[in-house]
Amino acid sequence: MRLLVTGGAGFIGSHIVDQLVEDGHTVRVLDALLPAVHRTQPAVHEGAEFRTGDVTDRATVESALDGVDAVCHQAAMVGLGVDLDDLPAYATHNDLGTAVLLAAMARRDVGRFVLASSMVVYGEGGYVCEADGVVRAGPRREDDLVEGRFEPPCPRCGQPLSPTPVTEDAPLDPRNVYAATKVAQEHLAAAWAAGTGGSVLALRYHNVYGPRMPRDTPYAGVASIFRSALERGEPPRVHEDGAQLRDFVHVHDVARANLAALRHDGPPGRLVPVNVGSGQPHTVGAMAHSLSRAFGGPTPVVTGQFRTGDVRHVVASSDRARALLGHQATVTFAAGMTSFARDPLRA
Q: Could you please report the per-residue DSSP string of 28-39?
């Protein structure tokens, strides 16, 4: 296939490009090289065509789509951001950029779209109450967090909840600006599919880590933040009590999931969401300790601090990825963290 990968110079995008080129595809990369992510010129696979340009620019996108069979859309601002002053930038790069890209695809009759979505669209993950069964956890109250009560209570009876893997049919409940823009991307892509008969697979990434993560940036994921602290000789600082459950998935498995999605003939006129995770939950505290041990650095510090917009537990059900795409993660948590402790990061 002839493929366009937006954001293909980034952390996840560059690994996807490597996988696609090595699989024999013709790959074009379009990346704006935003300074928040790229402080130095990144290396892109020599077998791919590289273009510097922004997906918000119509002429740039029209040109990048020449001769393309499918688009793998990775370009986005990521992370929770610094504060609400980041809101216009998130909406511009994530939502306006996606709208410009989809409009150009409709004009060019490019009908296959793989979207980098995120587990943040769910808000909290799945929960079950011993008394009330499956429930949706509401937003956590700031006074509870200040007092160290981090677990969300049952919205019906107030009793403690047990976390369960979140499935793709869970309601969408964005809790921060980044999450809201990822939901909007999915809605835009679904509208494009319905209007053109195209197919969309929205890959909802869970906590991705691995080589080429950017370091020392407030927009990076928690694994990169911890690794950056270790590089400085500092202990990772773990928010809350460290018992938050997440699904840490290696970037090589994420790249393989994108390859599987691009090979898959999705249903015309529809968006199908697919969780991309390891299927194995671990606490943030356990991840910090594993990484520190592998690095040989100081023991993590549990701070009790919290960030507004963070959720308590969210882990992936990987059933749909296996059934629909034949994809299953292969990098174990232990092997992945051992490798990540010495993997090269990006400046």
A: EEEE---TTT-S
- For residue 82, the model assigns a pLDDT of 60
178 as an active site residue: the answer is yes
pLDDT tens digit string along 87-113?
899 999 999 999 999 999 999 999 999
Which helix H or strand E contains 203, and what residues bound it? Answer: strand 199-205
Q: pLDDT band at residue 80, thresholds of 50, 70 and 90?
A: low
Whole-angstrom CA distances from 84 to 80, 93, 178 are 10, 15, 10
Active-site residue, selected from the candidate residues 90, 178, 205, 209: 178
Could you report the per-residue pLDDT of 145-192, keeping only the tens digit for each?
999 999 999 999 999 899 999 999 999 999 889 999 999 999 999 999
Q: Strands 112-118 and 199-205, how do they pair?
A: parallel
Q: What is the dihedral of CA 347, 117, 238, 306, to 10 degrees?
A: 120
β-strand pairing of 199-205 with 270-276? parallel
**pTM (whole model) above 0.90:** yes
Structural contact between residues 282 and 313, judged by C-beta atoms closer than 8 angstroms: no
Name the E strands within 83-122.
Answer: 112-118
Cα angle 125, 126, 128; round to 5? 140
**Distance (Å, whole) CA 206 – CA 203:** 9
Res 218 pLDDT > 70? no
